[in-house]
Design goal:
The strands form 5 sheets. Strands 5-12-6-11-10-7-8-9 form an 8-stranded mixed beta sheet, sandwiched between helices. A 3-stranded antiparallel beta sheet has the order 4-13-16. The chain is built from 17 helices and 17 strands. It is an alpha+beta fold and about 525 residues long. The radius of gyration is 30 Å and the shape is elongated.
């Protein structure tokens, strides 16, 4: 009797794959192809990609996390690489492209060993041991043990590398803005720094160099009335509409005469007048509401010289309350002293053709107003600023810096390779390939800068073998140079976690030997366009 194949165990339509060529090497090829997609975006001279998502929105960016998120990768092995990159983005906020490029190179080197007949068990063991050794060596490569997070120049220096990877030409200006905003938002040493305290407002027009920082909260809105500027402000924030309170029960009002109807209208006006008057008597001169402000309310607010603004976003209401130290109210009534927020100035500023309402306050919230010629430029700058703010957050807990420009990876590669040569077992081949894979970072930076790879990498290896630990890629002079003298630094914690995530996904993929893919679930057949009109 003929032996039944695996295919007979599964439902009809299920796809089944096994074997080294059909599963392992195919998975490796898919992951390598994905890493090649973002590899050209690594470094200061990295290229940008145009991505159009399923909603038709256009992205022009070199940010690996955005490219992968909007491209919607479907291959199961490549998806694992995307997940590792997303975890790096969520936990650390930077280094997503490093995870992809390094993991892709590790898999490429592993494929060479698989084809040479080395067992995947030995490759996995070699990679894991090499990772442990690399993490042991990494702290010894620290060039700066701490950063003064209140010093503008030191923070700029630390953030510049993160910004240079996507905004090389404007990195100096953006580093200055982000450093200023982060320091303003990190005044209280007893409270942990929150990335939510550094906000971004977009104003189309001008150039990136026209961007500026506001100490306080800025929102892209227009005020409701005619008052556009108010000094020495006392704010009442309402998380509801500014209207007369209504009963929850349904009721009807019956008028027996025209006089009764007139008196009813007058009583409505009188009640609103009393409410606005009681608010004004508390010294409130700025009112912010989450929902609508009625015309009747607007009339009396103008009469009592109170500035009015509507903020529909619940998040914006919370951020404003944090900035001005107010408490949001759920009823339209006069606030108590504890519920009133304070700030020296509220005004509407026209930046280009964009109206921005500015709340200048010392409540620990800063806003960077980004200028740019197109919405795509502004969005790309915003993503770079998010990376830099996350880098500042990491530095509040792990302030150690290592040499950038590929110097740290090259030195790790040199030391791990020497250690791999001393290994007695078969895992030495995996460890050696791990060391070679680390060279992909300086190699890619040099390649994207237009250097001749063979000559340059030979010079860089020679420099590290001589003991020049901080020798890296000088993208301006196109030569080997000391990264510390160039002022190029990376955060040690970012490198540490990026290597961990990359090796974890590589090891997982190397241990896969079979794939079973069930037939996708199919929903009900779509109705014909004319179906609704047919009786």
């Amino acid at each position: 009797m003929r032996k039944q194949s695996f295919q007979g165990f599964f439902k009809e339509g299920t796809r089944y794959f096994n074997g080294t060529d059909e599963v392992l090497l195919r998975n490796i090829d898919a992951a390598i192809d994905l890493s090649q997609l973002t590899r050209t975006s690594l470094g200061p001279n990295g290229m940008k990609k145009i991505v159009k998502n399923h909603f038709g929105k256009l992205y022009v960016t070199g940010d690996a996390a955005t490219i992968l998120k909007e491209a919607e990768v479907q291959h199961p092995a490549a998806k694992m690489l995307v997940s590792a990159s997303q975890m790096q983005a969520e936990q650390i906020g930077d280094g997503t492209n490093f995870v992809l490029v390094f993991a892709g190179e590790c898999l490429s080197r592993a494929a060479e060993l698989v084809r040479a007949g080395i067992s995947t068990k030995d490759i996995v063991e070699g990679y894991q041991e090499a990772l442990k050794k690399a993490l042991e060596i990494l702290p010894s490569l620290t060039v700066k043990d701490s950063v003064n997070l209140k010093d503008q120049k030191e923070v700029e220096m630390a953030l510049k590398t993160s910004l240079s990877s996507h905004q090389f030409l404007d990195a100096d200006k953006l580093a200055e803005l982000v450093a200023q905003a982060c320091i303003n938002a990190n005044q209280n040493d007893k409270v942990k720094f929150s990335v939510d305290n550094v906000r971004v407002a977009k104003a189309l027009g001008g150039s990136v160099n026209d961007s500026f920082v506001v100490k306080g909260f800025v929102v892209q809105r227009e005020v409701m009335g005619t008052i556009r500027k108010m000094e020495n402000c006392n704010l009442a924030v309402y998380a509801t509409s500014f209207d007369l309170p209504e009963s929850d029960t349904k009721m009807q009002t019956v008028f027996k005469s025209g006089e009764e109807m007139t008196n009813y209208g007058l009583s409505q006006e009188q009640r609103m007048n009393e409410i606005v008057k009681s608010i004004a008597e508390k010294g409130v001169n700025v009112v912010v509401c989450q929902s609508k402000i009625t015309e009747l309310a607007m009339h009396y607010l103008e009469q009592y010289k109170i500035m009015a603004l509507q903020l529909p976003s619940n998040w914006d209401i919370k951020r404003l309350c944090r900035a001005v130290k107010a408490i949001p109210l759920l009823r339209i009534a006069a606030p108590t002293e504890e519920e009133i927020g304070h700030c020296p100035l509220v005004e509407v500023r026209e930046v280009g053709s964009t109206p921005l309402v500015t709340f200048q306050a010392d409540g620990g919230v800063s806003t960077i107003v980004i200028r740019g010629a197109t919405p795509n430029i502004i969005e790309d700058v915003e993503r770079s600023i998010d990376d830099a703010v996350n880098t500042y957050l990491v530095m509040t807990e792990y302030p150690q810096l290592v040499a950038g420009a590929g110097a740290c990876e090259m030195e790790l590669s040199t030391q791990v390779a020497k250690w791999a040569d001393t290994r007695p077992g078969m895992d030495q081949y995996g460890a050696r390939k791990f060391a070679e894979a680390l060279e992909i970072v300086p190699k890619t930076i040099a390649e994207n800068s237009g250097l001749k790879i063979a000559d340059f990498m030979a010079k860089l290896r020679a420099a590290h073998n001589k003991g020049e630990k901080n020798a890296g890629v000088d993208v301006l002079e196109l030569q080997v140079n000391d990264a510390v003298k160039m002022g190029v630094y990376d955060v040690l914690h970012v490198k540490e976690w990026a290597m961990k995530f990359a090796v974890e996904v590589v090891v997982t993929l190397l241990r896969v030997d079979q794939i079973c893919m069930a037939k996708p679930a199919s929903g009900p057949a779509p109705r014909a366009p004319e179906a609704r009109d047919i009786d």
